[in-house]
Design a protein that fits this description.
By secondary structure, the protein is mainly α. Among the domains are: 33 residues; 79 residues. Helices cover 57% and strands 4% of the residues. Strands 1-2 form a two-stranded antiparallel ribbon. The longest helix is centred in the C-terminal third of the chain and has 56 residues.
């Protein structure tokens, strides 16, 4: 029993000695850290105080940013085309109806006007042709009415001269009577 008891005493003594060594090492670093003031840990920066003075700056500062306009307007041309020249820049003041903003390419406009003029001439000629055809058809209608009236008059005159039952009366009766 003496052997077992001695073993436990030695083991307990070893644990106590180890704990004391750990406490001594860790405790000193914690205590030493707590005793050092904060100013000793950071580098020291010297600060000079002077009286404020009003000074004019001769230098400029540039910065990136965006500006939103208080007033803006959407501008669109009355006719479509390619813009040939722009007379104002962003931010310029303009007056409605007075300031010329841009110029549309004139060549394309001239070509469009020429094409439309030619189309108008063709349409007028087509109208004149149709009027002439209408006048011709009306004249033919009048001539046909006159021919019909003359034929009807001749028919009536020829049927009144022949006696019923004769050869000429039978021949005239076979003709259709216009209505």
């Amino acid at each position: 029993m003496k052997g077992k008891f001695g073993f436990w005493v030695k083991a307990l003594a070893g644990v106590v000695v180890l704990g004391a060594i750990c406490f001594f090492l860790v405790g000193n670093s914690l205590i030493g850290a707590a005793s050092v003031p904060e100013s000793a840990k950071r580098p020291v920066t010297m600060v000079l105080f002077t009286e404020a003075k009003e000074v004019e700056f001769n230098e400029s500062v540039s910065s990136d940013g965006s500006i939103k306009a208080r007033f803006y307007a959407l501008v669109s041309p009355r006719i479509s085309g390619i813009i040939d020249d722009i007379f104002v820049r962003e931010g310029d003041k303009v007056e409605a109806g007075k300031t010329k903003l841009f110029q549309i390419d004139n060549e394309k406009l001239r070509q469009t006007v020429d094409l439309d003029t030619q189309a108008l001439i063709i349409a007028k000629l087509s109208l004149d042709e149709r009027k002439a055809n209408l006048d011709n058809a009306e004249a033919e209608l009048e001539q046909s009415k006159k021919d019909f009236a003359r034929t009807e008059k001749l028919y009536k005159a020829s049927t009144s001269r022949t006696r019923p039952g004769s050869a000429s009366a039978t021949r005239c009766a076979a003709w259709p009577v216009p209505k």
